[in-house]
Amino acid sequence: MSICNCELIDFPKIHDPRGNLTFIEGLTHIPFDIKRVYYLYDVPGGAERGGHAHKNLHQVIIAISGSFDITISDGTSSKKFHLDRSYFGLYLCPMIWRELDNFSSGSVCLVLASEPYSESDYLRNFDQYRSTPKSPE
Ligand code: TYD
Q: Using 50, 70 and 90 to split pLDDT, how confident is the model at 136?
């Protein structure tokens, strides 16, 4: 599992003068079945979210409104994305450390997840994360 397994996904767009529409179907537009949806909103200026990895969870992160930065790391390499379009999602495979910041005013971060919430799936300490074996790709 490395940041090479993470990628931006360009979702379908239905352009319409009445307003555009994007749709996402699990296992079709993203590589997992969606078991949970959550979102971050009312994020105060300067706040940072994330700061953890997941052992088994697959996620897609979308700037459904506004923008924010997400920096991902596999313990060796890191990469920063600026998400600012509601038709792009960043797919994160398991065992990727992520940090989110630079939230614009009124932004909303939507997350599609492959499993229900489980605190035991989190690695919240970076040193512990770095020393945890990453399963083969
Ligand atoms: P956390 O995942 O650490 O937030 P972020 O990565 O966005 O900074 O979750 C923050 C808190 O919310 C933590 O106490 C766990 C709880 N939580 C749930 O109860 N259910 C969920 O689906 C999520 C994502 C978090």
A: low
Cβ distance 72 to 20 under 8 Å?
no
pTM, two decimals, is 0.96
Phi, then psi, of 127 in degrees rounded to 5: -65, -40
Q: Hey, what's the torsion of the CAs at 101, 47, 124, 76, to 10 degrees? A: 30
- The rounded distance, in Å, linking the Cα atoms of 70 and 2 is 16
pLDDT band of residue 135 (cuts 50, 70, 90) is confident
Q: Take atom 25 of ligand 1 and give the residue whose Cα is closest.
A: 117
Q: Which residues line ligand 1 (CB under 6 A)?
A: 36, 38, 40, 49-50, 52, 117
CA of 16 to the centre of ligand 1 (A): 35
